[in-house]
Structure formats: structure tokens, C-alpha cells
Amino acid sequence: MKVVAIVGSIRKESYNLKLAQHIQQRYADKFELEILNLRDLPMYDQDIELDAPQAVLDFKAKVKEAHVVLWVTPEYNSTIPGVLGNAIDWMSRVDKVMNGKPSMIMGASMGVLGTVKAQMHLRDILFASGLNSPLLPMNEVYVGAAQNKFDAEGNLTDQATIEFLDKVIENFQNWMRQYV
Ligand code: FNR
Predict the structure, then answer these.
(1) Which of 72, 143, 147, 171 would suit a FRET pair with 17, their CA atoms being 20 to 30 Å apart?
(2) Choice from 17, 18, 39, 75 to test ligand 1 binding pocket (greatest atom count within 8 A of CB)
């Protein structure tokens, strides 16, 4: 099973990136996870969508090849970050690479609610006709107070979160069998 992670933060020390890296390493024997970089994506522009820049084509090709997309996002101002919305706009037009492709969402924030509002919005967005992505039901992953859950080297150290993720990933794998 091939999974791509779309991380909604482009900063180097991103907790969401670290969370995606934890999943990549801990479950390496279960699925291949490639973490995609949103930094190189230009701003979505309808004037150029039919002749999109190579960075957009490359990004969309990676998404298209994957069996499933793992969204790992912070919350910015009570919703998804602009860089993530921008990537979604590209994905929702011309070659609609998310169409029918299953998704799973998780997120880390420094606040206690752990991206709950951003994830609610992302769930709605994935329902839009340009995306049309079925979502892993009943498994919501909110990593709040992330600054207390990773060590200086970027490793997830919070035992409760690690064990919870083990269970969620098991559910995710069982659910995915219907799509792969
Ligand atoms: C934030 N942060 C934040 N946190 C939250 O729980 N709810 C929010 O609405 C916001 N809004 C927000 C806006 C902007 C512009 C920034 C830069 C930050 C804090 C956020 O949780 C924190 O910076 C995380 O560390 C961001 O995720 P990464 O970059 O560590 O993955």
C-alpha cells in the first residue's frame, strides 16, 4: 500500500512534519509513506491551470499514484493553513487526483484542542465535488500541546499518543483493504 502524506506546514521544525515522520518510521513494515513538500507549489491561478507549472504536475502525479492520502495539518486561525488550501485548489481542478481516493486526517497544534476546527473544515472540503475523497470514519487524531510531546530530536515521546496511533493505524489498514 502506497501512502502520501500532505503536511499543512512548511516550516522546518513543524510538529506536523514530525508526526508524519513518526508514522513513516514506526509503520514502515506496514506501508510505504512518502511525505510531500508544499513549499514548491506556486499559488493556484485559474489562468494557468491548463498549462500548470511542473511543480504542480509532479505533486499531483505523486498524489495520483498513491492508494491513500494522509493529511497532517496544523490549524491556522481556526481553519486549515493557506499553503494547504492552495494545494487543495490545484488538486481539485483539471486532473482531479483526489477523486475517489481515500483519506485519513490527523493534526498537531500547540493549543489544547489539537486542530479540531481545522480538521472539521478539512472534512467538509474533502466532500466537495472537486475532491470527493472518502474519509476513514470514527478515528480522529488530535495531538494537542505538541510542544510537550516531541523531544529535541523531533521524536514523538508521548506514550499515550504513540499507543493511540498504533490502534488508529491498525483501523486504517483494515479500512483500506476495501480500496487497495
Ligand atoms: C497558529 N496556531 C494555532 N493553534 C491553534 O490551535 N489554533 C489556531 O487557530 C492557531 N492559529 C495559528 C495561526 C498562525 C498563523 C500560526 C503561525 C500559528 C499555533 C499552531 O498550533 C502552532 O504554531 C503549531 O506549532 C503549528 O504547526 P507546525 O508548524 O508545528 O506543524
Answers:
(1) 171
(2) 75
Of all protein residues, the one whose alpha carbon is nearest to atom 21 of ligand 1 is 109
Task: State pLDDT tens for residues 127-149.
Answer: 999 999 999 999 999 999 999 99
Buried b (16+ CB within 10 A) or exposed e, 119-135: bbbbeebbeeeebebeb
Reduced to 3 states (helix: H, G, I; strand: E, B; else coil), residue 6 is strand
CB of residue 110 inside a 6 A radius of ligand 1: yes
pTM of this prediction exceeds 0.90: yes
